[in-house]
Amino acid sequence: MIDAISLEIFKNLFVSVAEEMGKTLGRTAFSPNIKERQDFSCAVFDAAGHMIAHAAHIPVHLGAMPLSVRAAIAECSFEPGDVVILNDPYLGGTHLPDITMVSPFFVPDELAEGDTPRMFGFVASRAHHADVGGISPGSMPMSTEIFQEGLIIPPLKLVENGMIQESLLKLICRNVRTPAERRGDLSAQLAAQRIGQRRLREILLRYGVDSAAEHMNGLLEYSERLARATVQKIPDGRYRFVDDLDDDGQSDEPVPISVEIRVAGEEMIIDFTGSAAQRLGCVNAVLAVTKSAVAYVVRCLLGEGVPTNDGSLAPVHVIAPEGTVVNPLPPAAVAAGNVETSQRIVDAILGALAQALPDRIPAASQGTMNNLTLGGIDPRTGRSYAYYETIGGGSGAGPRGDGASGLHVHMTNTMNTPIEALEFQTPLRLRRYSLRRGSGGAGHHRGGEGIVRELEFQGPARVTLLCDRRVFPPYGLQGGQPGATGAATITRSDGTILSLPGKVSLDVEDGDVLRLETPGGGGWGHAWPDEHPT
């Protein structure tokens, strides 16, 4: 029997499973990117692969993860004790560093009827591994095809009948620059999988199989009802917006993301027809990433308290033509599509919705993750290292107030790397880490400030930047001004200063200093004459 109280209880029970999986993964991981920055996500699924609950982790992971789970279901036959691993972006992945594990959960023996194991659901985790091979350290290269980006893993059993397949684990670790770190992070994911299964078992033992399954379906139906009610409040009509990526890293040609939102009653179509054709550079966003960006915006509209599961997407239909930058065909390069194009898709959707909901939608946030990957030989140890981080910026101002400063926005939700961890793990010294004053767009409500971050290298390294909003600034709304564009420079040890494009790979030497200035958020509303004096 389902009622409002029992539904709320089960919502939090399933969320708690995902949250504890995340705590386990973060505590036991080896790399700073997972342990410190918490670049991972965990979720619970039903037997059909519908997401039932997730923790408050990374939006770009969570919206795409259901497609990976369904790919694993389609490709593998599951038995108790199995764990499937995959990272293929064309099978529900996002980009190659994001490795997903999927574990089946069967009804406990104490509750089973008959001798055949009964599938109840799945638990899944996705974590960004700091290196999975490819042509540059960190596996976020200036690539022109996916094969340059690292090891591609289709759905394969890493654990079969409770036994780790050492041959597969050795194959993965042999193809990366930091094998001990990878093995440690993969072990942390396996620990998270086991915790998820253990907690689901406890739920079934306490509440029963039928009650738990009934509430899974009830949560999906409840979210769908709330989503349809939310869409129905949007005025019927067509709302169109175009926003551009600066370039694809291979040419200076802008990359337009075009969206038309069509609302009719409780149904909404989000149509990306007119977006750029897939590009040679790595800004292509696979369909899983595009749908993930759509899911993020829909869940923002729903507000707090609504169960975030697949039911909330039932009234939303996505059109993303094949062969475009929002749904490329293999072997298109995709490393930056997950991190940069996903942000621009969100900006385009919000820009269109601002025409329908001007009193709800904020101005554009920084619109980039400011991806920094680097690696080489650590002179302190003589061993290879690889490091990855994203850097926050300004969020867009909105009708209710100024934008927040110096944080990750929209499709990312990571922490920063503490200075002590950064300098302990890598041959780097952090010279400066501060807000970028004056970078937020002016308006009745001012956009948030970006960040200034300076890193001094303590030895030779290969560095790759994948950034955007260097040409097209984060837009303001309702009369607000745009935020400042980002910038990057490298100061060589002899004092020479070089200005860097947003997407670039280069070699640095001992004593070189990289300076990154991230974009500010757009302003909202016309400023009053005496506001924000200069």
Q: Using DSSP, what is the number of strands?
A: 20
Q: Strand arrangement, largest sheet?
A: 2-1-5-4-3-6-7
Strand content: 15-25%
Total helical elements: 9
Name the assembly state: single chain
- Which whole number gives the mean pLDDT? 96
Shape by Cα distribution? globular
How many whole angstroms does the radius of gyration measure? 23 Å
**Low-confidence runs:** none
Largest beta-sheet characterization: 7 strands, antiparallel
Structural class: alpha+beta
Total number of distinct structural domains: 2
Helix content: 25-40%
What sequence of helices (H) and strands (E) makes up the elements?
Answer: HHEEHEEEEEHHHEEEHEHEEHEEEEEEE
**CA-CA gap between termini:** 62 Å
Features:
single chain, globular, 20 strands, alpha+beta
Describe, in plain words, how this protein is organized in 3D:
The protein has 534 residues and is α+β, with helices and mostly antiparallel strands. The protein has 2 domains: 4-224, no CATH class; 362-534, no CATH class. The protein contains 9 helices and 20 strands. It has helices at 4-28, 32-35, 59-75, 166-174, 179-207, 209-232, 287-302, 337-356, 419-425, and strands spanning 40-46, 51-54, 83-86, 98-106, 119-128, 156-160, 163-164, 237-245, 255-264, 267-271, 316-319, 371-377, 384-389, 428-436, 450-457, 461-466, 487-491, 497-499, 503-508, 513-517. The strands form 4 sheets. It has a 7-stranded antiparallel sheet with strand order 2-1-5-4-3-6-7, with helices on both faces. A 5-stranded antiparallel sheet has the order 14-15-20-17-18, with helices on one face. Strands 8-9-10-11 form a 4-stranded mixed sheet. A hairpin with a 4-residue loop joins β1 (40-46) and β2. α5 packs across α6 (209-232). The longest helix is centred in the middle third of the chain and has 29 residues, at 179-207. It is globular and about 75 Å long. The mean pLDDT is 96.
